[in-house]
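fold-stage: in
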Amino acid sequence: MRALVYEGVETLHVRDVPNPEVGPGQSLVRITASGICGSDMHAYLGHDARRPAPLILGHEAAGIIEGGHRDGTRVTINPLVSCGTCPACRAERSNLCPERLIISMPPREGAFAQYVAMADDNLVVVPDHVPLEKAALAEPLAVSWHSVRLGLETLDHALGANALVIGGGAIGLAAALALRAQGIEDVTIAEPNEVRRAFLTDQCDQRAVAQSDGTYAMVIDAVGYAATRSLASARCAPGGVIVHIGLGEDMGGLDIRRMTLQEITFIGTYTYTPRDFRDTCSAIFDGALGPLDWIEQRSLDAAPQAFADLRAGTVAAPKIVLDPWA
């Protein structure tokens, strides 16, 4: 099969590689759509020790099962693999499993390839009316759905019900959509990139600003740099909640004194539970997250340039989705 192989810092090549071996309880999925995630970009830039070269990246994927009794079934992939037996897994919080990993982390190759072998329990059937390139958004949408759910479970709604999302990439936009789907209508996205901000406003019907002011009951940091954490600390209202998704850099930014004096809650969130993934898929299939028409599709051969364009900040669309067969 053909696959996009990460071979070193800012180095990607399309190669012929062996087809994946299908184990017990697994299906072979013919990948038709695979999105580029921020974590793929971190690996591409050499910033993710969990993804050493050489490696097939990619974990936001959908496709069609080939072979077996489910041959021809359209599915989207929950890429989170866990042990299934620890207390976290038994509590349906497999995102906290100490053995957790996501495909595109060794020893599991990723989904920038024509085929992936995946456990049947990690496959969600996609209705015929939903395009597979939109079903491939289930993974990043589930990240934000999970984060919003945790934030809303903590938020004291008597203190306010508005939200600021920092970062207008796929995770930030997904957070804005999840906030509205879960009952928060007053949502602002802070996005400094003018090209992306215009896209969010004109194509996604979002309130996007270059710089935010005022305070918000909930602030979602979908970027995760010291500067964005500093902004979250400043913009979160007394008694409010900061929900942290982004993994841009490890240290700095939080105003711990203000957070303490104003009783601001900080929640770190990682991926999603199986329930969150299923609920996100249902929301996609039912149209609760909108038309999801904010993707840009490219071929696998065009992927190296897609990564370079993302690196240069010249991509307006929040998500590029690759087609390994184009």
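fold-stage: in (second)
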Amino acid sequence: MGRNYYIFSNGRLRRKQNTLFLEKEDGKHPIPVEDVDQIFVFGELDFNSKALVFLAQHGIVLHVFNYYGYYSGSFYPREEMVSGTLVVKQVEHYLNLQKRMILARKFVEGAVHNLKRNLEKREGFEGEIERIKEISGRIEQVPTPQELMGVEANIRRIYYSTWERITGWEFEERTMRPPQNPLNALISFGNSLVYALVLREIYMTALNPSVSYLHEPSERRFSLALDVAEVFKPVLVDRLIFKLINLGELKEEDFLKELNYAYLNEKGRKIFVSAFDEMLEKTVVHRALRRKVKYKNFIRLELYKLIKHILGEEEYKPLKVWW
């Protein structure tokens, strides 16, 4: 796997012969496509079909974010990993409510375990942990994905109530569009990165990203990426936010604040994505594989487990962090 490449500047993405250049006011900057896995665009960037064809030839996924850091969309090459059998099985698991709920519950189960683990690593949150455990008992009881998401929302409300104590920053409640304070801005920005990361990994498999189980399939988004991202957000986003704030690497001056909303400025985004990339390269010894696995590779492994479940080979068990 190659590395992530982030573009914050305005300019033009242009192909010249067998090289890709980012043209800015200070000149042309070559992009080492042989070493790049995906490109994240945060600046105002122009590009033409010639550049996109070049990206496709090298299997590079390009993600575009708007001025405020919200994910807007992705360009990914024509799918090579196609399996009609898997797509049919995916749809069968969606249409059969019992099969759908099995997977939907697994995604919530993994997400809840991982966010609870974030609290268990700290002192003073025993009350919140017990309340989360109590509500978690309803995961197996609710009959529909909508009610299941309601259970998860109640758990997250308890979880987020601890964030002011963990970070020392004002939070109050989760707000998204727009995020009303820096903590909410960090969550939204980090979640967008994880969504894009998961989408790229889905592209590398034969799974169809539009067929999902916890979230409703939608014509406007790849909802399977939302399902899988639930498991990883507490690990890749929340832990990183706590670290950056507690170590003083991110400060409130790294945000743009206007009436009733806040967004990371360019400096803040650069700090976050640099730490995000560093975290993705960290390794942990996998209990089943008994070898070191990078954080970013856990996403691909998660998708392989999902495929095995859909094909009836092995029951899907979500990632539950032990570290």
